[in-house]
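Here we describe the complex-level prediction in full. Unlike the single-chain runs in Section 2.1, the two entities below were treated as one system.
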Amino acid sequence: MDFDFSEEQRLLKESVDRFIGDRYDFEQRKTFAKSDSGYAHENWKQFAELGLLAIPFAEEHGGFGGGPTETMIVMEAFGRGLVLEPYFSTVVLGGGLLRHAGSDAHKSEFIPKIASGDLRLAFAHGERQSRYDLADVEARAKKSGSGYLLEGEKSLVLNGDSADTLIVSARMSGDERDRSGIGLFLVDGNAKGVSRRGYPTQDGLRAAEISLSGVEVPVDRVLSEDGLPIIERVVDEAIAALAAEAVGAMAEMHALTVDYLKTRKQFGVAIGAFQALQHRAVDMFVALEQARSMAMFATMMSAEDDAEARSRATSAAKVQIGRSAKIVGQGAIQLHGGVGMTMELKVGHYFKRATMIDVLFGDADYHLARLAEAGSLAA
Amino acid sequence: MDLRFTDQELAFRDEVRTFFKENLPPAIREKLKEGRHTSKDELVEWTRILNKKGWAVSHWPREYGGTGWTPVQQYIFLDELQQAPAPSPLPFGVSMVGPVIYTFGSDAQKKQFLPRIANLDDWWCQGFSEPGAGSDLASLKTTAKRDGDHYVINGQKTWTTLAQHADWIFLLARTDPSAKKQEGISFILVNMKTPGITVRPIVTIDGGAEVNEVFFDDVRVPVENRVGEENKGWDYAKFLLGNERVGIARVGVSKERLRRIRELAAATTDHGRPLIELPRFREKLAAVEVELKALEMTQLRVVAAEAKRAKGKPDPASSILKIKGSEIQQATTELLMEVVGPYALPYRQEHEDEEGWNEPPIGPDWASTIAPTYFNTRKVSIYGGSNEIQKNIIAKAILGL
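The structure predicted for the assembly as a whole is:
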């Protein structure tokens, strides 16, 4: 058992921490957010130069050959920086689907473009009725000549407005919630029949509602004909990555709050002298460390091939992250008092991001029910 | 970063697990599973089995009988011990006074006491708390007045766990009444058979009597029974309190308890269905499992860091282990209460559970210990520095408030 990073991982952490420290302060972030895509293309190029966009891919396809620990390192730093660029959509979700479902030809074609920063992906999966059920897909793929025609509505597609290529799930057979028959398709973002309505999200990121109307997909753009197990695997990896991001955001919220307790004076003393506030800050600290432990656990288990064990571990981590985020986030706002309520202060933005992470891919209650249904975590 | 146990660590775990399986007396295992207290004889029996194997004082330095295991091995050993479930060696000897003696004691004290602690030839108890000194330990009032080559001890100790079995007590007493609060305290070893000592049981809300008051009335103790220097006892006490960190979270105990809850909930019906099938109950159980898994990972992080930290410097993060560990232990007893339901009601004196009692049980035969365990377990967030004190420690030592 070893909690230490390797030399390479340590260097990666140093470089991504330096990037966040030097180029991603709160004022800079505000200017990044003003662009149409909601982030800075300059940063995306930097990510490519730093090698961050190549991390999880195999070296034979131009990747860095990293694993879940490398992704954890990057996502935690991004959580601290409240990073806006579509790393999660492109590298974690889109990249994950390509890694697990793509043919050699797909990988050779797409991965070098991701690594160089020339291709941004989005995963168009969720629909109006599906909530957190990954098998609930109504969009249809109909055979047409040698390819397919896609019809349907996709909702809450993270970074769907600016992505170059969409990975779309659509039913090739079966009924709405059947586990089998879900296909995955690579679709150009500007293809005929694709219409996208982009909008900002609560946490300052972006998403899109996407309509597919007679979208033609040639057969060599079919990523998978039985996509659900792959989607589930990638979502488990994605939850581990989000857990790390949430830990970064929570750590920063906690640090800001403790600083504030030391500097803010009331009744002639720093408010951190009051035991009621100290104990609340400690409750936040305990919640943060428990979340950090579970983010590590999810990271370790996301490489697990046993789907049931992996899914139980992922659910457990998502429960802990959601619950901790409430304790840390609500505590941070409360202990800041009135200024914590203002858009001007950074702390509220962390709170909003951590809160939105809870509602991505199943909130704490959803995953608790799923874990309870599945049986014991220890099993 | 690789959070899995290595092959050697897994092999070690199997070795420990097999040893417990083959050598733990079944009667002791059953008692612990059912939440009953083991007798003095049973703990002596088990400690001697461990000591024969060389495992009774596993964390001591090798020269005094320790194993030289890594912190991870120590953790695995304890986790397996708690999950067996097997009794932990008596902490007052092996985790408290033993390390104080081998660190600060004289050669004569080391020779006299250490082997007898390892073999549980001497049963030790702890004389720190007093009626007026709980969380504020340094306000203790017991005095040890020098009279030639003896100290004469007067005062009262309380919450003295299992003093009714004890051969020896280690205590803190004021040797310089004029000194400031933390100064002028000495650390003294007292034979419980010395004239002037009275032990009186305190009955706790579960009906048990594991704690006592101990009265000292002109008790004469040879000066050579003092550990280390006179008036430096507070330093030794701080060392002692900071020492017992691995295992404070009792993760293995809670793991075993959750397994038992599953078994009992499968055997209990609610509206004609096993309780374990009720989604509401399953979710509560799953929520505790999540907390426990997070605590186990936090514990492993502390253990891994311990391997690299200077000896004798406790990690303030271990306060987290105390807080979450006690909360989870209490949560498991609440789940047990939910499982037993109305059969929590009948009260059964503990001696009635001893062999030779022929009255049939009322309700399920495992029911009678559930409510007492729930009541008794309230103590875990109070003793060893209450959870509120732990929060003060974190606020000061980690957050710098």
